[in-house]
Design goal:
This protein is an all-alpha fold. Helix content is 80%, strand content 0%. It has two helices and no strands. Helix 1 (5-23) packs antiparallel against helix 2 (30-54). The protein is elongated. The two termini are 17 Å apart. The model has no long low-confidence stretch (mean pLDDT 94).
Length: 55
């Protein structure tokens, strides 16, 4: 499960962004958009770290 933590964070951040644009109310909240951005960036960094440790 730890192997897929980065991918899960990226997908979660992307899904939250999709939900915000479909509701059209969450788009105006900067804290929500920044949280989604941090999830995606954190997922990318986590994926790189976990992948390097395996190799």
């Amino acid at each position: 499960m730890r192997k897929y933590l980065g991918i899960i964070l990226i997908v979660l951040g992307a899904l939250l962004l999709i939900v915000s644009y479909l509701t059209k109310e969450l788009v105006d909240y900067n804290w929500y958009q920044i949280l989604c951005l941090l999830l995606v960036i954190g997922g990318i960094i986590t994926h790189i770290i976990v992948t390097k440790k395996e190799a």
